[in-house]
Amino acid sequence: MPDEPTGDDRMTVLGETARVVGRFFDLKADDYEKRMSSPYWRLMREITWQHVRRFLPREKGASVLDAGGATGYWSLRLAEAGYRVVLVDASEGMLALAAEKVRRAGLSSMIEIVRGDITDMREFSEGAFDAALAVEEPLSFCGDADMAAAELALVTKPGGMVAASVVNRFKVQEFEKYLKKGDVDGLAAYVESGILEKADEAGGAITIRTFRAEDVEALFHANSLDVVSAIGKPVFAGNLGGRLADPPSFSRILQMELAHNGERSLWGSADVLEFVAIKA
After folding, report:
1. In angstroms, rounded to a whole number, what is the distance separating the alpha carbons of residues 44 and 36?
2. How far apart are CA 34 and CA 72, in angstroms?
3. Looking at the 3D structure of the chain, how many domains does it have?
4. Element (H, E) at 225
5. H/E element holding 146?
6. Which helix (H) or strand (E) holds 105?
7. Which terminus of the chain, N or C, has less C-beta within 10 A?
8. 204 lies in a domain?
9. Does a structural domain hold residue 176?
10. Cβ distance 124 to 12 under 8 Å?
């Protein structure tokens, strides 16, 4: 664990955008937890685990940041693998669910939970972590991906791993939403900006930034993060629906995904792009 104060002793800072994003996801915490238990999202998470695990620190007990980690899935999985984890998220509702899961799992000594803003992680010292994960697409939701990437790089030790996933700008399904309505102008604006707006039940909204692969690579390069692996996910499973509930089908599709999701020609089917980098 980083040499920092723990629990309520941390001096966390939330900017206004982080507060808005936090409130947005507070309303969605229960639904998020249910949705992420579906076969589709179990597949997505298993793809990520197989992607990032070979780049994680070899030393058990190494410190890992779970940035924008929501209800704690990755924190729990990392702690179960022997790492000491700090989970940071802006949503009190998400973190409340995470805290209960951590308590039930008996992993409170391995996981610290901090309400914070991944675009301003001054509560952690430079090089505090052996690795950092941001694999629930927080760079797309945080309001300032440039600052978030810079902060992830700053708090990671030289030679440490940074893994991040983002919403894919060029997925075919997003284009179809505009084309079905004949909204060519809307499509053109989206392709140019990569910006989507998402509303909640209470009338609030957040801005979602989608990315081209080149955008993420440039962002990482600007922060001395050398990309060593990149995938799209899923490249086959997007339209399989209930078939993924069948264990043999799930296993077969997972193996196909792992064999081919590094092929950029298939990334038009991917909801998410995911990158692993090593800090220079």
Report:
1. 9
2. 13
3. 1
4. strand 225-233
5. helix 145-155
6. helix 92-105
7. C
8. no
9. no
10. no
DSSP 16-38: HHHHHHHHHHHTTHHHHHHHTTS
pLDDT in tens, the chain (280 residues): 544 333 445 667 799 999 999 999 999 998 999 999 999 999 999 999 999 999 999 998 999 999 999 999 999 999 999 999 999 999 999 999 999 999 999 999 999 999 999 999 999 999 999 999 999 999 999 999 999 999 999 999 999 999 999 999 999 889 999 999 999 999 999 999 999 988 876 667 899 999 999 999 999 999 999 999 999 999 998 777 678 999 999 999 999 999 999 999 999 999 999 999 999 9
**Residue 235, domain extent:** 7-169+210-279
Residue 108: inside a domain: yes
Q: Measuring CA to CA, how many Å separate 219 from each of 30, 35, 121, 222, 271?
A: 32, 30, 18, 5, 20
Q: Give yes or no for a contact between 151 and 124, defined as CB atoms under 8 angstroms apart.
A: no
Q: CA–CA separation, 45 vs 24, rounded Å? A: 23
| CB-based burial label for 42 (10 Å; 0-12, 13-18, 19+) | middle
Q: Answer whether residue 182 is part of any domain.
A: no
Domain harbouring 115, CATH code: 3.40.50.150
pTM above 0.90? yes
Number of residues that make up the chain:
280
